[in-house]
Design goal:
Strand content: 15-25%
Number of strands: 9
Order of helices and strands: HEEHEHEHHHHHEEEEEH
Helix content: 25-40%
Number of helices: 9
Shape: globular
Largest sheet: 5 strands, antiparallel
Radius of gyration: 18 Å
Structural class: alpha+beta
Strand order of the largest sheet: 2-1-9-8-7
Oligomer: single chain
């Protein structure tokens, strides 16, 4: 974004809300949020509901870490083992909380998310209720979770603003420091309780570039291509969310555009 373009919408500082008339991204909805103050640097249909896809796993990770220590062993249920688009966890095996976090946040394993939800809530339905209650505590007003992984289902939805609030909690809470370490990992080899080996690779194409530190990709048929990113600018942490970008790669381009916009607004 050029300085003239930024000034044309009257945004002269980070705390000044931008309007949707300035449209630098392909995403159908998007925000940039100051992770500490929750002020919006940029917004585009910030409160329009869409499918959250695998960004859902941010909330799953929060609840998993808030309940259990990293070394706690979670049993893999048959429901979790049957969940599609996972890493191939086997029913009856075990996985530590730490390794489940790696599986959820690096390759976005749905079986690991399902196992985590059942471990915390006792069932997928009860865990969804816990997710929704925690989301409300974090300030989310237009979010309904139906499962732990984010696969499309009837009645699940969220907004760019709400997902930014969830991401901001991960990036700022002392309780989430272990998750932040996971987010900085490009690849990891983990083992199950029965010695099964899993090689994991991050889906975050921006990791290792600039000041990007996270957070979570999301892709489903109804949700499209989404990404919750996190980066620093002038010593402050910002969380961006793009939902419904035009292609898989474009969600990262959109995120880089928003990071550049944040720098311009900071300089102003």
């Amino acid at each position: 974004a050029s300085k003239d373009a930024v000034q044309s919408v009257g945004a002269s500082k980070v705390s000044k809300k931008m309007t949707t008339t300035f449209n630098p991204v392909t995403a159908k909805t998007a925000v940039v949020m100051n992770a500490d103050t929750h002020e919006l640097v940029y917004q585009k249909n910030a409160d329009t509901t869409r499918k959250p896809s695998s960004m859902t796993k941010m909330m799953t990770g929060i609840l998993l870490r808030e309940k259990y220590s990293l070394g706690h062993k979670v049993k893999i249920t048959s429901e979790a083992a049957r969940t599609p688009w996972g890493i191939g966890l086997k029913s009856g095996d075990t996985m530590t909380v730490q390794n489940l976090l790696y599986a959820m946040f690096l390759p976005s394993a749905n079986d690991a998310a399902c196992a985590s939800g059942i471990a915390v809530g006792g069932s997928t339905a009860r865990f969804a209720s816990l997710m929704n209650a925690r989301a409300a505590q974090l300030g989310c007003t237009r979010t309904v979770y139906k499962n732990a992984h984010g696969l499309d289902t009837t009645g699940n939805y969220s907004t760019a603003r709400d997902q930014a609030l969830v991401g901001s909690y991960i990036m700022t809470s002392p309780k989430m420091s272990d998750i932040r370490k996971v987010l900085l990992t490009k690849s990891k080899v983990i083992y199950s309780g029965k010695g099964r080996k899993y090689s994991l690779y991050s889906t975050n194409a921006l990791l290792g570039t600039g000041t990007f530190q996270g957070l979570k990709t999301g892709t489903t048929t109804l949700g499209g291509y989404s990404f919750c990113g996190a980066y620093t600018c002038n010593g402050q942490t910002y969380v961006s969310v793009v939902m419904g970008s035009s292609t898989s790669g474009q969600r990262f381009t959109d995120t880089k555009t928003l990071a550049g916009l944040t720098e311009e607004l900071e300089s102003e």
